[in-house]
Every structure is written in structure tokens, then in C-alpha cells.
Amino acid sequence: MLVSLVAALLAAFCYGLGAVMQAIAVRASSHRPALVEAGVAGRVDPGLVIRMLHQWPFLVSILIDLIGFAGQLVALRRLPLFEVQAIIAANLAVTAVFASWLMHVVLGWREWIAVCAVVVGVGLLGTSAGAEGAATVGVDFQLALIVALAAISVSGLAAARLPSRIRTPTLGAIAGLGFGVVAVCARILPGFSPHQLVRSPAAYTLAAAGIISFLLYASALESGSVTVATAAVILVETVPPAIVGVVLLGDTTRHGMAGLAVVGFILALVSAVALAKFGEAGGHDAGPKPVPPRLAEPASQLGAPDQVTGRAGGAQPGLPSGRKPG
């Protein structure tokens, strides 16, 4: 149990650190203004991820996210889905701290309170959560996940054609559903050996869901506010899997600690959503501190006004939660 909890915390740490680098890579690689001028902006841009592969921060973030994803897999083997997903959502606290350190964003007192609240919420979850449920799933459950992923893909393509005002939150929410599918698939994997993975439909669904969700999330970041996209992802990737775990997979808390678990879950989730907007809500330059040379150019690109929304993108950068590359 302790090893699984440490693995979940490691995953949150890795995702939070990777998020800083992913935000830089997305902004530097976006062709969104050119697509708007060409009149073809209403679609998911598959080339975005390809262009991001030429950005060193993104390459580093992939490695960090893979380590985090391994930690998440280990955690999901022993801990309930609601605990793991809430801890993963807490990576926004890690992102905030690293942004203040690496990019010299000053966090206000509200943001530091939210960071502390995330820590308290995660602590309550760690204290109250029992072991993962013992319920097993059949072929029908796995087929339902495949159908759900297909519906998510179609919905994402449709959402890409929506007006900019609602495109970003809708794409973010749909991407969050996809990441929820990733978590559920990881939970029901029969094991990690090649023989078990090759024979498991959940393994293939997990890989496909990771790729599709990451592409949708990157498109949401490209087209609008990082704050809105991230908050939508956090909410939707956390709550539905938690419900699935309790209702269908038998996840429980320790005896007599259900109330404590609910308080911890809500506190961690609400605080994470609050931190999703820390960059736009009040981050300020820390003054004359020099920006590391390798971050100077991407950071300036983040600060350039968005040609679609007219908003500045990053003197006070809102940063996404770290995401699984699949």
C-alpha cells in the first residue's frame, strides 16, 4: 500500500514538471493563427504533435511523463481509482511550484493556500483509502470501453468545429474523458508481462485512448485559454473514473473513513481546479531575475499575444497538467 501511494505521488510530481515543458512546446509549435487565416481552423491539427517533437522541452516532457505513467500504473494496481485520480490531479500544485522556480512566476497567497489545500486533501485520501476493489470485469466491460473511446474520438472531431469560445472547454472535457478511459483501462489490466498485455483488449484501448486524448488536449491548449482547458480536463478525468471505481469495480475506503475520503477528494480536486488558473489569475514577473538561456526564447513566445483571442499567452503563463503521451 505504501509503495503504491509513493508511486502515485511520483506520478503527480512527474506530470507537474512535464506540464511546464509541454506548455512551452505547444505555444512554440502552434500554427493556429495561420489555420485561421486559411479558413481551416475548425479541425484537430495532427501536425501539432509532430511539430512539438522538434521542441526539446516536449521531448524531455515525454520521458518525464513516461516515468509518471509507470508510477500511475503501479498505484492503480493497489489503490482505489478515486484516490489515484485525485492525487494525479494534484500535479497542478507541482506545476505551480515549478513555474515559480523555473519561470519566475510569483504565486499569490490564494495560490499558495490552494497548494497547501492540495497537500492536505491528498493526505486525507492517503489516510482513508482502502485497497482497490476486488470486482473483476468481463468482455462486456472492455467492449464498453472501446465503444466509449470511439464516441470520444467522434465527439472530439465534432468539437474541433465549434466556435472558439466553447471549443476549448469542450475539447478539454472530451480529452478528460479519454484520460479517464486510460485510468480505467490501467486499473483492469491483468498484469504487465508481455504475454498478458498482448492478450488484453484493455492494453490496446489504453494505448489508443492515451494518443487520442493527448491530441485532443493539445488542440484544446492550442485554440484558447490554458486555464479553461486544464480545469475541464481535471474535472472530467477525475470524477467519472472515481464513480466507475466505486460503483463497478468495488473500490472502498477504510472502515468508518468514507466521510474523510470524500472531504479529501473534494478538497484535492477543487484546489487543483483553482490552481489551473493561477497563471492568468495573478502570476507576476519576479523582477530582475534572469531567465535561463534555454527557456528565454520559448518563454517569449508564450508571452506573445494570441492572434485568435488577442490575449497574452504567457508573461503569466497558465500551465497545463502533465499528460500521458499514451
Folded structure, characterized:
- The chain is mainly α.
- The protein has one domain (2-303).
- The protein is built from 15 helices and 2 strands.
- It has a two-stranded antiparallel sheet.
- The longest helix is centred in the N-terminal third of the chain and has 28 residues, at 2-29.
Write the layout of secondary structure elements.
Blueprint: H1 2-29, H2 32-38, H3 47-52, H4 56-76, H5 81-89, H6 91-102, E1 105-106, H7 109-128, H8 139-159, H9 164-188, H10 194-198, H11 201-223, H12 226-247, H13 258-275, H14 278-282, E2 284-285, H15 293-303
Antiparallel strand pairs: 1-2
Summarize the structure.
This protein has 326 residues and is mainly alpha-helical.
Number of helices: 15
Task: Please state roughly what percent of the residues sit in beta strands, choosing from under 5%, 5-15%, 15-25%, 25-35%, 35-45% or over 45%.
Answer: under 5%
Please tell me the total number of domains. 1
Q: Which value, in Å, is the CA radius of gyration? A: 19 Å
The largest pleated sheet is described as: 2 strands, antiparallel
Structural class: mainly alpha
List its traits.
globular, mainly alpha, about 0% strand, about 325 residues, two-stranded antiparallel sheet
